[in-house]
Amino acid sequence: MDPAALAWLLAQLGPTTPTTDLTSRHSRLGSARAVALEVLAERRAALLAEPLRLVVDGVVTMDRTANLTGVERQIAALQANPGPDDTPTDADTTHQIEAVPIRPARRTR
Known about the structure:
Layout: H1 3-13, H2 19-29, H3 32-49, E1 53-56, E2 60-63, H4 65-80, H5 90-93
Antiparallel strand pairs: 1-2
């Protein structure tokens, strides 16, 4: 994996993410975006495995729904945008030409 892709992954997933884990996932999956999506899916599953909200009256209140919402937004953003090592698809490389008729502002005599 090139250093630019590793830097992008660390920016997406946080600097404490182990680089050896990211490198092994990249060799298995083939792209940095796939690695980021897999790590975020695992984080989402871990959040869903535990109660999102815990209330002990008068003692403690824990609410993790905002964390889940943030992870889901990050997953949606990664699915919509290409990663640093993604190859452009045909839709990304097509050019569109538009033709419009040109008319004078006033009629000439």
